[in-house]
Amino acid sequence: MSLDTIDRAILRVLQRQGRISNADLSTRVHLSPSACHRRVQRLEQAGFVRDYVALLDARKLGVSTTVFVEITLQGQSDEILEAFEAAVSKIPDVLECHLMAGSADYILKVVAESTEDFARIHRQHLTRLPGVAQMQSSFALRTVFKTTALPV
Questions:
Q1: How much is the average pLDDT of 37-59?
Q2: Which residue, 4, 10, 43, 132, shows the most beta carbons closer than 10 Å to its own?
Q3: Overall CATH class of domain 5-45
Q4: Does the 65-139 domain belong in CATH 3.40.50.300?
Q5: pTM score of the predicted model
């Protein structure tokens, strides 16, 4: 399925305002409500819209410390990679895990209440991950900007 300019406009609005009503969305993209609804359904069915979520405020939830952890594994075999990925996906404090090309094998984005809480996460979870040879943690001092919106 190829996207036209109206599909892209719908996606731009939805990814920033997922709770917008169909009537308001149709006005914003200059379509009738029924045509807009059909397009949104088609975009959802085609997998362009993966899900609708609420973005929570980490500070208000008490997890304002963000740590990026670079992980180097002992090897690159499928068994080592699969074991690591299965284990890391079970740690609730890890928001993202990326397989990398470069100096580290993986980069994790971890949230914690404080540096002490990160020490607990490190001790109880990260040090127990299978196949890890080396770990380096970098603490974010301040988030300059953050978005979930993809360029559409």
A1: 97
A2: 10
A3: mainly alpha
A4: no
A5: 0.90
